[in-house]
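User: Can you predict the 3D structure for this chain?
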Amino acid sequence: MNDKKMEQIEIPSKISLIRRSSNIKTFYETLDINEDDFVKEIINNSDSNQILYNFYKGKRFGTNVRTIIVNFENVLFEEKDFNLIRTIMLGSVDFEGKKIAIDGNFKNCKFNVPIFIDNSIEAELWFENCIFSRDILLKGTITGGIKFFKCEFDKLFDLENTEITNIFDIAKSLFGERSFVKLSNTKVKHLGKLCIKNTQFIGKFEATNLALSSYANFKNISFFNIVDISNIQLNGMCFFENIAFGNPASPMMIEAQKELAKALEQWGHKKEIANLGLNIAQNIDDTEEREYQDALQKGWLNPKQAARFLGKSVRTLQEKRKNDQMQITKESLPFIGEGKDILYPLDALKAYLEQDWNLLKELRKKHWKK
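Assistant: Here is the predicted structure, written as structure tokens:
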């Protein structure tokens, strides 16, 4: 995303005004208010929230409006907007002793401002195609729903000691090599849901004592660097599929796989250990590791190496080959050879892991001619 281009984009003066859906309990009262007075109350005599003013300017507030949805698109947020972001994420603003709820949608935005919330986060927030170049610290209870879709993070992403009682969803996102994800002592409880799908963690990932006592879904996740998931608790509805470790034979990755396997077995998910293809051996043969690294360099992996790369078992991959030969689907993986001579192209394995079905289709045409 080009910063210079973003700076030239005018901020759209547009908001959506809707009620909260009927299945969400809320105690906010309807209020017939003067718009100018309300805007002044939000701005608090500061220019830091000028962007928010542009969204409200010229709009009328209906007497039955319970929630104000603020839409931001192609906006570059900087230090001066710190209070604006905080106001929206907290999810409400006081006006004449009464609360007005605020939810936010952010699309194609860049955040050159740190986000720090040390209180209950009540807003329902949607971030799509956003880039976060500063730290994100969410400290408190997340009672609203937060979703990150196709976002990029390159600094601290800290939910340590946070309680999640609603939806917290990360999908098709990338945590860069300088990122540090902290989920240690985070608790997902009551009706909370923690979902992480189709996401890569190239930086550091720390989730010691993560307690998933409600619902969690981890699918198509790749870890490439430092991982610490010791003593995680899986006493809720937890689902794991396609968890890949970039260098599964390294001592740190072996330990991470052992900790995950230990937690799965302890909390009644023993069968998923084999399905995930977790490598929990104490020692790895040096020759096997050299062959694996050499295969990665050459771009062609045998079935055992491909299973390690995808985080699957060899048997699961074997069954997939049979199914793919019988019927081509968008998830079919191309391979060459037969029997012990089967090889998978690395670019196809990466496309499958990232669920890039268009690229996978092109690679099938290249390697299978169909």
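The chain has two domains: 3-247, 291-368. Confidence is low (pLDDT under 50) at residues 1-32, 45-51, 53-65.
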